[in-house]
Please model this.
Amino acid sequence: MSWWGKIIGGAFGYALMGPLGVLLGAALGHQFDAGLKRAERDDGPIPRFGNRERTQAAFFTAVFSVMGHVAKSDGRVSEDEIAAARAIMAQMLLSDEQKHAAIRLFTQGKQADFDLDGVLDQFRREARRQRSLMLMFIEVQLHAAYADGYIHPAERRILDYVSRRLGISEFEFRRVEAMVRAQHHFSSAGPGGHGAPPSAQPSLADAYAVLGVSADANDGEVKRAYRRLMNQHHPDKLVGRGMPEEMVKLATEKAQEIKSAYERIREARRQ
Model:
């Protein structure tokens, strides 16, 4: 049974607890209550969470609640930010139940009494401080923040704080931010991108930025950067480390953008 199935089946109260548990329980509402009553009525064992399932539940809860908090940090939540949150939910192919829970988590994150420190500290513990999960978490937040084309200074301050709380260095945060910004330019100019003529090619400068290397990097440095990022975004590895299965499609799309950037650079260097 998946982590989501176990939550609905009634394991939630025995699994997460803490600030994340409070948020997820409120987001599930009567769905969780009904699952718990069903488990009690059937008089069967309430399913328990393994470490990976706990991490998956924590990742899901933290991603959408913190996303709402970041969106609200500049005083208002724009239509672009709401659309970005919904687009991420669509990319994750969430069920209707999961979408409703994600929207409620986003809304809870906007509240003045949102316990940001408690949520981040518990998420870091549940994820067992795995660097790849922390970086993927920040990457998702940055993609949502860049929905309207730029990051408001208040959003940047919150994201800086979130990164530090999760143990991510300022250098790593700036590198991920540059990659996300470049990905927005790169994907919009690529096949099927918006706002560019069909013949437009992604910028070579953006391709280098996606890989996090300079244009004067040698071939070996470019290849190492590409391999490091592909390893970091490998869907199977991320799921094995505790990323929800629902985010596989999102991770796969990011890996494809990295591959496209690498191929753009290789093509340019062969000319």
Summary: The CA atoms of residues 207 and 261 lie 4 Å apart. The longest helix spans residues 248-270. The chain has one domain: 3-270. Residues 3-270 form one domain.
